[in-house]
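Subject: mismatched residue count in predicted assembly?

I count 595 residues in my input, but I want to confirm that the predicted structure covers every chain. Input:
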Amino acid sequence: MNIQEYQNVFVLAEQRDGVLQSVALELLGKGREIADTTKSKLVAVLVGHQIESLVNDLIAHGADHVIYVDDPCLAHYTTEPYAQAIYPILADKKPNIVLIGATSIGRDLAPRLAAKLHTGLTADCTRLSVDEAGALLMTRPAFGGNLMAGILCPNHRPQMSTVRPGVMRKLVRDDARKGSKEIYKIKFNTSRFLVEVVEEIKETKAKVRIEDAKILVSGGRGVGKENMPMLEALAKELKGTVSASRAVVDAGLIDHDRQVGQTGKTVRPDVYFALGISGAIQHIAGMEESEFIIAVNKDKYAPIFAIADLGIVGDVRKIVPLLTEEIRQLRKK
Amino acid sequence: MKNIIVCVKQVPDTTEIRLDPVKGTLIREGVPSIMNPDDKAGLEAALRLKDQLGSTITVITMGPPQADEVLKEALAMGADRAILLTDMKFAGADTLATATALAGAVRKLDYDLVITGRQAIDGDTAQVGPEMAEFLDLPQISYTAGIVAQKDGSFLVDRKVEDRIYRLKVRTPFLVTVLAEGYQPRYMHVAKLLEAYREPKIEKWTAADLDVDPANLGLKGSPTKVNESYSKALKSEGKVYELDPAEAAKLIAEKLHEKYVL
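Triage response: the counts match. Full output below for your records.
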């Protein structure tokens, strides 16, 4: 492998039902920075059906060039058609770096592509930095978020990384930005399409997106089953949203989509309440960027206090109802 | 569905890992080793198919000699055969080299279905299953929450992702990666437990037993290298107060007021 042949930064731009996913634009933001540092081009790869209208969005968010594949077999995500569409592009264009969103699609597709290319893939990165020679340092949490590991892929190309949604920053949309586009024709081998979508069941209940909340009231092991309504009441008074640590999700007290942390979501609200959360690093990994952190915990040595802007040593079950009432009174004034 | 292969991993229980508050390092002593939860759910998925279809289940793990503990547990839960891949040549493998070794072992066996967990709690990568599927040239379904046998010999597999469930139809052979939330694992059988621990029928395979180029195994066969690792430095700018509940509530409300939240 001649590493010098591998140039440019590629972003696999994920879309679902013809809607670009936020993480695609976040990756373009980071990709732009990496491409500028390495004096190379930022290329977005877009595959799907009837998606040409998205090309300009990718350029406006930082792409120099967009390669796209449009085919009815790509309307819904399944592994094989998507791999058949993207692998030839990567093999042909020889990118130095490929960034993919660490979503259920990206985490399914990226390892399949990495194995085809026989190269390294680093999962769920939270930080990326590059030197001028184009070597990518990929930093990710390991051991349930207890440890950060910086990973290199020295002798194989492309250097591939999936990146957690919500971590990188999008560029502000700029429609004056110029870029080129290229349609890529794929001759699909449909005899290898062995997985058929029989039914697609979309979740009907309104989706709670804790990553969009301005105020999060987050409960941990110290809250207990019978006290979950207490968090709801506080959140309601603050017009906030309830979220939780892994312990609470594992106990089945709340849906997984409200979990903050390494195996849940990364959030950065204006105010984050950590109530009865001790602050295992796996949790902190998902909320430390919050603007203002208020922690309440019985254990004065709880690690959460190390990152809290305001820490209270005390019993959540006693303090939360009083706080809710206090806020109610203040609102009346 | 005659033969099912389940890949499992022995992992430290990461929920039990604590940071030394003074040194800021991981405290690894006394952390129990467990069968990775998603893998255990994968084994349960295989056992349910066995209950219904009479399949034979082979469990494989790669790890140090003491990783045979998870194989004993798997046998006691109802697996039929257990293989331990253990060799210094496997050590230090990243996901690609791990998938190379496991796929090499699977290739030596008969199979209709290969099951892995979605991801392991010590690495959280979710990469080994799909990489194995590529090496074995199998269709893959990750994030599997259910597998149902159909009368025509096909299978309906539920793939559960962020905002929807895909119901997929597939024929054997195929590979799935299973979510812990899809399958509550059964307990070990007492009779099988005694048998598994008294006379464990665990086969040990080394790199020489696989038809795999040793250059693709272990640290040497790993494209990714860990350059540095560190526990996160925790910064504190805030204050911690010990107050009675009413005072605490007042203080928090005041701070919220200052921050224009109220």
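Chain B touches chain A through 81 residues (CB under 8 Å). Marking this ticket as 'not a bug'.
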